[in-house]
Amino acid sequence: MSPRSKEFRMSTLHQTINSLAAEFAHSLLRAVRNASLDDILSETHAGHSAGGGGGRRRGRAPAAAGGAKRRSGRLHRRSQGELDAVVGKIVALLKGNKKGLRAEEIREKLHLDRREIPRPLAEALKKKVITKKGKKRATTYFA
Length: 143
Prior knowledge:
With 143 residues, the protein is mainly alpha-helical. It has helices at residues 3-34, 37-43, 80-95, 103-110, 118-126, and strands at 101-102, 131-133, 140-142.
């Protein structure tokens, strides 16, 4: 293959990509201009900017402990009552498993997010209602 034919193919590819990108941009602008404000706002998460916004969300419902669909991002701040309820569930689960369970097994059985488990485990250990054996991922918890 000669260098000239390679240059021609690259230039044609470049022109094709530019043409497609311009056509896409024009089509996108046409769609946005023809859309209603309600359609646009519903696509941008109820008025929040698509880029994140940077501020803290207000009025957000707490994540349900029953395995409901979870959002990515920060968890809501849990009250002491909510933490105590999770600790109670962990203790009850461990009482039924004499061989003990690892944190990820507890998390799966209680349908908790991976970020929800460390604090209740620490609270339960602090209150001495559970014990642990092992280190890191090999840690097993017992009632």
